[in-house]
Design brief:
Distance between the termini of chain B: 75 Å
Oligomer: heterodimer
Largest sheet of chain A: 2 strands, antiparallel
Number of helices of chain B: 5
Low-confidence stretches of chain A: none
Number of strands of chain A: 2
Strand content of chain A: under 5%
Strand content of chain B: under 5%
Strand order of the largest sheet of chain A: 1-2
Number of domains of chain A: 1
Mean pLDDT of chain B: 83
Structural class of chain A: mainly alpha
Largest interface: A-B, 60 and 61 residues
CATH superfamily of chain A: Cytochrome c oxidase, subunit III, four-helix bundle
Order of helices and strands of chain B: HHHHH
Number of strands of chain B: 0
CATH architecture of chain A: Up-down Bundle
Shape of chain A: globular
């Protein structure tokens, strides 16, 4: 259609109608497309962090601290490598599983189960952030890791670690708030009145992305 | 209008992507969940048994890509989306490969420069 109808709105309303009116590229709810595009931009942010970490790790002259030793946890007199990180990984995967189930029950219009599973997901998220806080405390207070240096080796270790895991932790924290808000709305029937549970799926996309980022952080920062 | 379309499809699974959102059997989520646990344990084992060198790196990347693939395909429902959306979301990150290669080259160059300037 090359001719705009004479009634096309002007100003900001015009901008919004020009961008949205009957011009569908993707046959999914717009909220889902927007979430995917946000996640795409977030992918680039996290990739920049991980790439800069790679760059400083390649270029440093000092020995890179061995993450297997730095993140070991002493249980019963034995140092078990990466124990806390392994537990954190399992917690996050479990939360991803409960979230996937929540989306499923949402589309089945099972309000109680959807909300319960979403609260469980948020609780596991809180659990994850708490363990991360414990890990940060251990590193900062007991092992003297700072963004500008540490006793174990290359100074860049601290800045990379705090930047990457801190930004990820921030995402988890925001996700907990996001999921709680949506779960409360599920409980009070907001999406039944709206007629669709797609918001639960969109929130789920965000949460799975947080899990996805952790997969890469786990591989490149903790295991490498 | 959208609501009417959704209602007419109901819970028909074959119209999952267009009807009432994405509906799939619970079983598939449970399987992927289990699989992610197993793959995570595998990647943890790589560290626990102190594998080194190319074996370690290739195993880490293999398990990482498998986990990422299952999360995106099943949990994020990308498997059931239309190709237009798949392409719009999954192809742009390929540009990152350029960034990663450039930064790897740059990192090596910085290292060699430091080696030449600071070590005597």
């Amino acid at each position: 259609m090359s001719h705009q109808p004479m009634t096309a709105p002007e100003g900001l309303q015009g901008v919004s109608s020009d961008w949205s009116a009957d011009k569908h590229a993707f046959p999914v709810p717009w909220g889902k497309v927007m979430m995917w595009i946000f996640l795409l931009s977030d992918t680039f942010i996290f990739s920049c962090f991980l790439t800069s970490y790679m760059n400083v790790r390649i270029s440093t002259m000092d020995k890179w601290p061995n993450p297997s030793e730095v993140f070991a946890l002493n249980v019963g007199g034995h140092d078990i490598p990466l124990l806390l990180i392994a537990i954190m990984t399992m917690v996050l995967i479990t939360s991803s599983g409960t979230m996937a189930m929540a989306v499923n029950f949402g589309y089945r219009r099972n309000r109680k189960r959807t909300a319960a599973l979403m609260f469980a997901t948020a609780a596991l998220g809180v659990c994850f952030v708490s363990m991360q806080a414990f890990e940060w405390t251990k590193l900062i207070v007991h092992e003297g890791v700072r963004p500008w240096g540490n006793p174990m080796g290359a100074a860049q270790f601290g800045s990379s670690f705090f930047m990457i895991t801190g930004f990820h932790g921030l995402h988890v924290s925001c996700g907990v708030i996001y999921l709680s808000v949506v779960a409360i709305r599920v409980l009070n029937g907001f999406y039944d009145r709206k007629g669709t549970y797609e918001t639960v799926e969109v929130a789920g996309l965000y949460w799975h992305f947080v899990d996805l980022v952790w997969v890469f952080i786990f591989a490149f920062f903790y295991l490498w | 209008m959208d609501q009417a379309v959704h209602a007419s499809h109901g819970a028909d699974a074959s119209h999952a992507a267009h009807g009432e959102g994405q509906q799939h059997p619970v079983r598939i989520y449970l399987w992927i969940w289990l699989l992610l646990f197993v793959l995570s344990s595998f990647s943890y084992m790589v560290d626990y048994f102190q594998l080194h060198g190319y074996l370690r790196w290739s195993l880490i990347i293999l398990f990482m890509l498998l986990k990422a693939g299952f999360i995106i395909a099943i949990f994020m429902h990308m498997k059931w989306e239309r190709l237009a959306l798949k392409l719009a979301i999954l192809t742009p990150p390929l540009a990152l490969l350029v960034l990663i290669s450039l930064m790897a080259i740059e990192g090596d160059y910085t290292f060699l420069t430091r080696l030449g300037s600071f070590v005597h």
